[in-house]
Amino acid sequence: MALRLSLRQARELPELRFEPTAKRVRAWAGGELFADSRRAVLVWEPRRVVPQYAFPEPDVLADSRRAGPAEVAERPVSLGGTHDVLDPSTPFGAHTTAGTPLTLRAGGVALEGAGFRPDDPDLVGYVVTDFDAFDEWREEDEVIVSHPRDPYHRVDIRCSFRHVRVEFDGVVVAESRAPRVVFETALAPRTYLPPSDVDFSVLRASARRSACAYKGRARYWAPTAGGREIAWSYEDPLPDAREIAGYVAFFDEHVTVTLDGQRMPRPVTPWS
Known about the structure:
The protein is mostly beta strands. It has one helix spanning 5-11, and strands spanning 17-20, 25-29, 32-37, 41-44, 52-56, 63-66, 99-106, 109-118, 126-129, 136-139, 142-144, 155-159, 164-168, 171-176, 180-184, 190-193, 204-212, 216-222, 231-233, 248-250, 256-259, 262-263. 28% of the residues are buried.
């Protein structure tokens, strides 16, 4: 019987997973270098969909001590499957495998609970680190944002000539025949439209900002000041996503999308 790979990956989500990387990885906080390694591994705790970096203890350039208990709640989200998962909205401190939380200190900078020593025998001697606890991360000499990149995660951007129409509360906010479609592993496709095909007169710029490990930093728009954001754009994306620079995407979860004359169902995602 043939094996559907995505289903196999879903079955492995409850497991503690890891993968070595050949990249040199460094992390700073408060001007102090906390880790510098050519032996790092990516670690996914059970149910986590994005990895964290773990370092051999000699490559952690900080003192460590057991951290106090952290009262951190899980925030499970649905990716449209039968089981909820944990995305980065669930803080690092909500560990789903046995181990010891650690406080890391370098110079005068102390990061409470920013490390975790798992009990698993395959990860003995490693310290998993909280990406968000540090100010700067580099793979080789390039800055990375949001979280470590998953080596099994792809982002493919394709030019299209489909007719896309976007409405919100019955008002057309965008219409285009020159979209660019982003196909991203385990996520619903996203359609990015040229800014010239978006009616910004019905949108209000939002103060919200976010970061994607694969595309860069995004800005947002809402239909009313202070309202729920329905659109976003990467004005200066990372090199692998240059094709969507300045293009605008909409949350298909909150707008009505018609594609080549067919109304599309609203996807079930963490942003629903």
